[in-house]
């Protein structure tokens, strides 16, 4: 049985991210990676550090694991003796991953990463050998950290170098963006804001997933009026509150972890889904692009390249 991060006997969780080291800056470069790990001393506190009412339930944010970033050559780390799964039909296929049903495990799916990288809503595509394994390990590490902090996610366990098992969800077609620092596309939409402006409280944005129209920005009212019905659940005010407040909690968990390494979490983009068996709203999709170093750090969930800049 898989051990949790809170158990002292557990293995160290690593997430390898393609990066090259040039002085104080880390940039994308095949052949060198940064390792993201939870330390051996990680333990669960007696009581939650903070609690946030999330509308229909209570989200408990426990103490955050300290993440250690270091540079080392990429090693071949094929997972030994991954159990056989009976793979069923393809449920869906995205720009960088495929999702398959599991015949002998109803309610679960296999999320298979691909060695494909995209930009500009998949207008530009390319292949990068080894990217799938790195993306999968990164996603597994981050989701485990979030689960240890009380966040409900679709992640179940890592299955192989390039795939993980998750609960089957119908995805809510909204990208939730949370920002601490003004940069990138936000500056284009808000030309009066200077780059580097620090948001306190966090700046929240949402975008409707529509590649043909470049993912237009939506308001909360538009989301409510859309009345999306997924897995038998109609997305209403309660569900929107859960996603909104969970996004802030997720950002703060990762921000605290990144701060231990003298890194600033600039912004993040995540997606939620509805569990087809329980009708519960959970963090889903993947979080597989993390670029970091001493300075500004940006993390995004699978859609566009993030960047690290020197302070």
From TrEMBL:
GO terms for cellular component: cytosol. Pathway: Purine metabolism; IMP biosynthesis via de novo pathway; 5-amino-1-(5-phospho-D-ribosyl)imidazole-4-carboxamide from 5-amino-1-(5-phospho-D-ribosyl)imidazole-4-carboxylate: step 1/2; Purine metabolism; IMP biosynthesis via de novo pathway; 5-amino-1-(5-phospho-D-ribosyl)imidazole-4-carboxylate from 5-amino-1-(5-phospho-D-ribosyl)imidazole (carboxylase route): step 1/1. Residues 91-288 form the SAICAR synthetase/ADE2 N-terminal domain. It comes from the Eukaryota. Keywords: ATP-binding, Decarboxylase, Ligase, Lyase, Multifunctional enzyme, Nucleotide-binding, Purine biosynthesis. GO terms for biological process: 'de novo' IMP biosynthetic process. It holds the Pfam family SAICAR_synt. The keyword ATP-binding applies. One of its GO terms (molecular function) is ATP binding. The keyword Cell division does not apply. InterPro entries: SAICAR_synt/ADE2_N, SAICAR_synthetase, SAICAR_synthetase_CS. In the C-terminal section; belongs to the AIR carboxylase family. Class II subfamily. In the N-terminal section; belongs to the SAICAR synthetase family. Homooctamer. PANTHER family: BIFUNCTIONAL PHOSPHORIBOSYLAMINOIMIDAZOLE CARBOXYLASE_PHOSPHORIBOSYLAMINOIMIDAZOLE SUCCINOCARBOXAMIDE SYNTHETASE, MULTIFUNCTIONAL PROTEIN ADE2. This is SAICAR synthetase/ADE2 N-terminal domain-containing protein. It comes from Channa striata (Snakehead murrel).
């Amino acid at each position: 049985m898989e051990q949790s991060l809170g158990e002292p006997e557990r293995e160290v969780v690593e997430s390898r991210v393609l990066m090259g080291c040039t002085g104080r800056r880390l940039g994308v470069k095949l052949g060198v990676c940064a390792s993201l790990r939870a330390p051996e001393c990680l333990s669960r506190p007696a009581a939650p550090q903070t609690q946030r009412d999330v509308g229909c339930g209570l989200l408990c944010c426990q103490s955050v694991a300290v993440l250690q970033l270091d540079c080392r050559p990429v090693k071949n780390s094929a997972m030994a003796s991954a159990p056989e799964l009976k793979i069923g039909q393809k449920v869906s296929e995205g720009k960088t991953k495929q999702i398959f049903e599991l015949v002998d495990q109803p309610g679960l799916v296999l999320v298979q990463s691909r060695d494909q990288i995209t930009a500009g809503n998949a207008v530009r595509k390319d292949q990068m050998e080894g990217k799938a394994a790195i993306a999968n390990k990164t996603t597994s590490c981050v989701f485990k950290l979030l689960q240890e902090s009380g966040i409900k996610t679709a992640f179940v366990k890592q299955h192989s170098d390039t795939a993980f098992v998750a609960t089957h969800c119908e995805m809510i077609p909204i990208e939730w963006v949370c920002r601490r620092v003004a940069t990138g596309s936000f500056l284009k939409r808000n030309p009066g804001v200077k780059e580097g402006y620090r948001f306190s409280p966090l700046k929240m944005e949402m975008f409707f997933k529509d590649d043909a129209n470049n993912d237009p920005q939506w308001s909360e009212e538009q989301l409510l009026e859309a009345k999306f019905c997924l897995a038998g659940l109609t997305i209403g005010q309660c569900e929107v509150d859960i996603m909104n407040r969970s996004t802030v909690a997720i950002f703060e968990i990762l921000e605290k972890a990144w701060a231990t390494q003298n890194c600033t979490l600039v912004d993040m983009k995540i997606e939620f889904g509805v569990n087809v068996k329980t009708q519960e709203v959970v963090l889903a999709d993947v979080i597989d692009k993390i670029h970091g170093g001493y300075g500004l750090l940006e993390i995004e969930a699978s859609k566009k390249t993030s960047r690290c800049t020197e302070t």
